[in-house]
Amino acid sequence: MTTSVLPHRIVPVARRGRAPSKPGAAPGQVQSLTRGLQILEVLARAEGGLTLTEVGQRVALPASTTHRLLSTLERMGYVYQAGDLGRWYIGLNAFTVGSSFLANRDFVAQSHTYMRRLMEQSGETANLAVLDGSEAVFIAQVQCREIMRLLVKLGSRAPLHASGVGKAIFAALPDEQIDAILKVRGLPRITESTIVAPETMWAALRVIRQRGWSFDDEEHLIGTRCVGASIYDEHAEPLCAISVAGPATRLPDQRIKQLGPLVAHTAEEITRKVGGRWPHPY
Q1: DSSP assignment string, 149-198
Q2: Tens digit of pLDDT for each residue in 96-138?
Q3: Which of 34, 71, 156, 222 to pair with 253, CA 20 to 30 A apart?
Q4: Pairing of strands 125-132, 238-247
Q5: pLDDT tens digit string along 16-27?
Q6: CA-to-CA distance for 178 and 168, rounded, in angstroms?
Q7: Which CATH superfamily is domain 105-273 in?
Q8: What are phi and psi of 127, to 5 degrees?
Q9: For 117, which DSSP code?
């Protein structure tokens, strides 16, 4: 028997003498291509560009080799040189390639493996939801194997202030957007545990931001508890949220404290997988 939730409208690579961290190509790799990509990586991480000497030092290559690689990348539009010091920068073609990844990424498909692993580790159902207006919409789910489990219809909605995925996304929004949503939607009571006081909600959101995960303590559905964490895009803005949910009897306080960091870690892994930027300090 299952408990269902109705729609809510809701490389280690071979070491090279001078490069312990960025050595040359591993067996099966093209060395010049590997070196060129390493140069793109160091330029992408550098603010304000790098001189030829700085690039060579960071990839542990002689100046002559570094210059040949940079010149090749420059002819192809992947880097360019500018300024009085002749500093090198990431070029337009590199941006185009990166933008293509962002435009074509399927974060739902990319999240599925992590959701299944999270379900196995937690023993509870894993969910994925996105923000739509002032609500969270469930778009993917990996059900647990328990007889009693929480099922959510895909496409159903959950309030931001009273659900695990919702509160995770809510806390990740800018203060001005949170304030606007509170003014327009308020904090309607759904269960006796729903947070309805703005000052209490703000305090809860600050806690979520500090620790990186949210907690729904029977605030949306009596008898169920949920832990969620936001997944971020390349601008460190909320892209979606992941959660685990189950009967409150299987999720006592001690279990919640164990699941919180696990869900947050999974969210961070997905964030990096889809090219996002994790904003939390830990």
Answers
A1: -EEE-TT-EEEGGGSHHHHHHHHHS-HHHHHHHHHHH----SSTT----H
A2: 787 665 555 678 888 999 999 999 999 999 999 999 888 998 9
A3: 156
A4: antiparallel
A5: 333 444 445 566
A6: 12
A7: GAF domain (3.30.450.40)
A8: -125, 155
A9: H
